[in-house]
Write a structure and sequence with these properties.
This protein is mainly alpha-helical. Helix content is about 60%, strand content about 10%. The longest helix has 22 residues.
């Protein structure tokens, strides 16, 4: 058995699932660079991008449905941000490594030499393609039965750290819950050359300035102002 076949078997073992159509697993773990260098194996289009498209939609649906059931007290905003954090590139790349996708991914020589096997975007794409392949081979239940424990642990970590909420979102939700007021932001200054400007932002509740922050963009400055306000008001 080749080294790659061993790695693919390891992916199935970690999933606790044996593909009835193993060609789907092979396709899911075939990067476009490999297909380009090996047209004899099915042509230059014989790679994982179509499965990635499918798996992305499957994951979005399953994670959304799961969060909807798990958090009946969450409104649309927190649900959307939590889902986005769970299925972001960094999160799915970690899941890919946990499943051994990095070792099983088939890459072209140049992509492999440049570290493509560890590149988060490649790992995320391959994980989504793997989900697409698993869905086609075994259906939605096969996908979620195997992935729910991982997403449950990830969600617990994210919720504990509130890392799915950026400072502006956290501040707005806290303030609206406490006062019913929607905070506003304004840029009160900037300095430096055009290619390296620094901005100063303030966040206000009504006419009262409750936080000020500095950042390399207007958005970053507003985030810093919101974090300052959270700290000053005791929720940061």
């Amino acid at each position: 058995m080749s080294e790659n076949n061993v790695a693919m078997s390891a992916v199935q073992a970690r999933l606790d699932y044996t593909f009835q159509r193993p060609e789907l697993l092979t396709l899911a773990l075939t990067h476009p660079s490999y297909a380009h260098e090996h047209p004899e194996e099915g042509g230059e289009e014989h790679h994982n991008q179509r499965l990635e498209f499918l798996g992305d939609a499957v994951l979005d649906f399953l994670v959304a449905a799961w969060l909807f059931e798990q958090h009946p007290d969450f409104s649309e905003g927190p649900l959307t941000r939590l889902r986005a954090t769970l299925v972001c590139t960094a999160s799915l790349a970690r899941l890919a490594v946990d499943l051994g996708v990095d070792a099983a991914l088939r890459l072209g020589h140049g992509e492999e030499e440049s570290g493509g096997g560890k590149r988060p975007a490649n790992l995320c794409d391959a994980l989504e393609a793997l989900v697409g392949a698993l869905y086609l081979d075994g259906g939605l239940e096969s996908v979620w039965t195997r992935l729910e424990p991982w997403f449950a642990r990830e969600a617990e970590t994210i919720l504990a750290a509130e890392s799915y909420l950026d400072a502006k979102s956290r501040f707005q939700e806290w303030v609206q819950a406490e006062t019913g007021i929607t905070p506003t932001y304004r840029i009160v200054g900037d300095s430096g050359p055009d290619h390296a400007k620094t901005f100063i932002a303030q966040v206000l509740l009504g006419e009262r300035v409750v936080g000020e922050g500095v950042g390399s963009s207007k958005r970053a400055a507003e985030q810093a102002a919101a974090q300052a306000a959270l700290a000053a008001l005791g929720d940061g």
